[in-house]
Amino acid sequence: MTDFPLFPEQASSVAPLVDGLFLFLVVVTGAVSLLIWLVIFYFAIKYRRRPDNELAQEQEPPAILEMTWTVVPLIIFIGIFVAGAWVFLRMQVVPRNALEVYATGRQWMWKFQHPTGQREINELHVPVGRAVKITMASEDVIHSLWFPAFRMKADVLPNRYRTLWFQATKTGRFHIFCAEYCGTSHSGMIGSVIVMEPTDYQRWLAGGTEGSLASQGETLFQKYACNTCHMDNGTGRGPVLAGAYGKTRPLADGTNVVIDDNYIRESILRPQAKIAAGFQPVMPTFQGQVSEEDLIRLLAYVKSLPAPQSAGATPAQAVESTTNATTTNATTTNVVTTTNR
Predict the structure, then answer these.
(1) DSSP states of 270-298 as a string?
(2) Which of left, alpha, beta for 231 (phi over 0: left; psi -120 to 50: alpha)?
(3) Which residue, 6, 136, 325, 339, is most buried by CB atoms nearer than 10 A?
(4) pLDDT the model gives residue 330
């Protein structure tokens, strides 16, 4: 029995918080259950049926007792809510400096892609002490990516991206499971997280030869002729993508949408769903032509595009800026010439 642990190993920054909340709930519910059982047992003996108490007597309970069984549970429930909400927020809010990794679930394997281009199947290499954000999608049915040692789990859906994050606190090899029944070989959809020292992780990354995800996405961007419509100078038949990620875009129906992972994915697969204001619905669909892995590459490329230097400037402002720059250069030249004389 010594080899049978009650809990998986704690190996992430949120694991102690999740275990603490779970143990708190177990203790509270166990204590309340025991108290109720003891009170019932005591009352069953004290107020058992006897000849001298055949008729029930109505008696008003003390006010202090009513206040106690109202206020004490209220305080306990509020405490549970606050503790649960705090742990939930810690698990949901991704740190800004998180390392991005993309995961794709399919029957019956996990595929991971790193920003530097490395691809893995049923294994995930990450550095210790660094927050890791995983953007997930499914190629077929609903899966659930579960890291028991990290106390993190999230459903992986076939129609949109979801994210989870963790920060490993110790090196080693830890289990990956699919926690959602997904078919006949569901039990075989397993893998491992290999947590490494930062220097070892950098050496592992250096072994990649396919180029970064962004560079692979740029190749696909040109292959599908996306660059013929989405031009940085704004003259194309599609909106400018450079520097657009994370910003708000007005739509033709008068609403606004944030340009995030799911919007980009939807715009590639179902471009007629949300038409950008000022543009015609002329973009063809790439549903069935682009795989989930290629979608991730295209997404990485769009996210890597820097904002154009002249973004936000009107043609008149651009002409004025050019004129001012020419005048300034001419003035500078005259001053230099006069000085040399």
Answers:
(1) -TTSSPBTT--S-PPP-TTTS-HHHHHHH
(2) beta
(3) 136
(4) 41
Tokens representing residue 167 in the block = 């920060």
Give the chain's end-to-end CA distance (angstroms, integer).
Answer: 96
Q: Can you point out the beta strands (E) in 198-264?
A: 248-250, 256-258
Burial 173-197 (b: 16+ CB within 10 A, else e): ebebbbebebeeebeebebbbbbbe
Measured distance CA(290)–CA(313) in Å, rounded = 35
Alpha carbon distance 39, 332 (integer Å):
94
Helices and strands (DSSP H and E) totals, the chain:
7, 12
Length of the chain counted residue by residue: 341
Strand, coil or helix: 139: coil
Rounded to 10 degrees, the C-alpha dihedral 66/27/75/63 comes to 10
Mean pLDDT of 263-268: 90
- Measured at the CA of 17, the angle between CA 149 and CA 201, to 5 degrees, comes to 45
- The answer to whether 190 and 208 have CB atoms below 8 angstroms apart is no
Element (H, E) at 324: helix 315-340
User: For residues 334 and 43, what is the distance between their CA atoms, to the nearest angstrom?
Assistant: 105
DSSP, collapsed to helix, strand or coil, labels residue 24 as: helix
The DSSP line for 55-119 is S----PPPHHHHHHHHHHHHHHHHHHHHHHHHHHHHHHS--TTPEEEEEEEETTEEEEE-TTS-E
The dihedrals phi and psi of 88, each to the nearest 5 degrees, come to -60, -45
Specify the amino acid at residue 161: Y
Measure the CA–CA gap between 263 and 149, rounded to whole angstroms: 32
Query: What gap in Å lies between CA 208 and CA 206, rounded to an integer?
Result: 6
The residue whose two tokens read 């076939």 is 158
The model's pLDDT over 86-114, given as tens digits with 9 standing for 90+, comes to: 999 999 999 988 999 999 999 999 999 99
Contacts of 167 (CB under 8 A, 6+ apart): 12, 13, 14, 95, 129, 130, 131, 132
Q: How many CB atoms lie within 10 A of CB 80?
A: 15
